[in-house]
Amino acid sequence: MDMSLLKNKLKRSNLIIGDVRDTASKFFRENDPAPIGAIIHDFDYYSSTKEALQMLNAGDLYYLPRVYCYFDDVVGGETELYNDFTGQRLAINEFNNVNENIKLGVPYHLRSNATEIWHNQIWIAHFLSTMTTISSLVLAIKNFL
Q1: Which of 1, 15, 47, 67 has the most CB atoms within 10 Å of its CB?
Q2: CB count, 10 Å around CB of 77?
Q3: Given this model, what pLDDT does residue 110 score?
Q4: Concatenated DSSP letters for 34-45?
Q5: Nearest-5° angle of CA 35, CA 36, CA 42?
Q6: What is this structure's pTM?
């Protein structure tokens, strides 16, 4: 891959190359992005997916209350035999088990009408503390009116 050629083609994006353990820990400090609404996880392995998912703990101000997350290696055939106890799916399950206020869930509306394989590769990150705060604000406004 010609990184300089690729970087020159990017107009409103940054290309960050490196080990996810190193790049993820400083991403928000160095880039201060607008609130994120979608993340593409193309890390292939349990260990790198586990590291990348830790970025969801960066704080509510960096994310919309619900974030679409694509995982490339959660659906496969008889060769891969992906399941909830290996690879990216294991990383997702472990993340959900240790995080009380952030959960990755399946968007059943998408899966119920799945016509493309990617429909089964989407999860939704729910930031429950943000959603609770929004619900509290709505209730307070209703009570005020």
Answers
A1: 67
A2: 7
A3: 87
A4: SPEEEEEE---S
A5: 160
A6: 0.82
